[in-house]
Amino acid sequence: MSPRAAEPPAGRRRASRTRRRPEGPGFTIITGLSGAGRSESARSLEDLGYFVVDNLPPSLLPKMAELASRPGGPGRIAIVLDVRGGVFFGELSKALEELEELNVRYRILYLEASDQDLVNRYEATRRRHPLAPADRVVEGIRKERLMMESLRGDADLILDTSGLTPHELRDKIRDAFSDAPPDESLQVQLLSFGYKFGTPRDADLVIDCRFLPNPHWIDELRPLPGTDERVRKYVQGQQTYREFLRRLRSLLGFMVPGFVAEGKSYLTVAIGCTGGRHRSVVVVEDLARFFRDKGLGASVSHRDLDR
Q1: What is the pLDDT of residues 157-201, one digit of tens each?
Q2: Which residues pair with 194 in a beta bridge?
Q3: Would you say residue 88 has pLDDT above 80?
Q4: Domain spanning 26-177: which superfamily?
Q5: Residue ranges of the domains in the chain?
Q6: What is the rounded distance in angstroms from the CA atom of residue 175 to the CA atom of residue 266?
Q7: Of 74, 34, 83, residue with least CA distance to 55
Q8: Edge-to-edge strand order for the sheet containing 105-112?
Q9: Which residues, including other chains, have CB under 8 Å from residue 240's CB and lie 6 or more apart?
């Protein structure tokens, strides 16, 4: 978890999280930690047909919306915002309020990574951190995490790029943005993982299913992945599993309308078991069918399946 700031930077007002679902040209605002993959994400969205503007001052967002709404405008737009000073937050809050008044839909993509990954990336490129030009990189990362914490809380989609190659990050961006139509109410991302490899940093909900009977202790099932029919039948055949899934579906069915009403665009649900190869995989595949049956876009990722 990132360090928690006691107070947001001076002069900053939090952007509203209860947002309307207006029609018309939409903005994807790309922000997050320096070195976490903002530029790569911007290039990926550009490949998907977005008009990308890098480092636009937040105060110019409404003007960009006005230009986009004209006949022959650029349509889908991605804006890369780079935090360098406290004035940024006040300008951004005001600009987002103006976008809502103009009835312009916007979504915030926040990119982050572990301290070690960020340090390694800066060492590989021999760049200095923008918030620590004369100090250690790790100190700049610490300052930026504190500065960005509240904006992270306002994000619609958080992507943790730790350990990802540029190609893998592009795949995640395509999964999140290419399949859903612009007016999709909620995109659900389902992730299976193994607790022994660490919990995912970018999940909205984390569900522990290690209490379910484990196929690992069945000799003929141990080497098989959770996507195999034999493993799936074993897990689904347990009374405990059927009751768990019934209650989990009920809980998610209750929560999703609230997320939609709040204006949330993306929901990341992580399901964990010990190694991330069997039980969590089966649960994720079943939940994907559950969400798709409800007419919601649902993408699936099995983080530790091949470990």
Answers
A1: 899 999 888 888 888 888 888 655 444 567 898 999 999 999 998
A2: 273
A3: no
A4: P-loop containing nucleotide triphosphate hydrolases (3.40.50.300)
A5: 26-177, 187-302
A6: 12
A7: 83
A8: 51-54, 77-80, 26-32, 105-112, 157-160
A9: 211, 212, 213
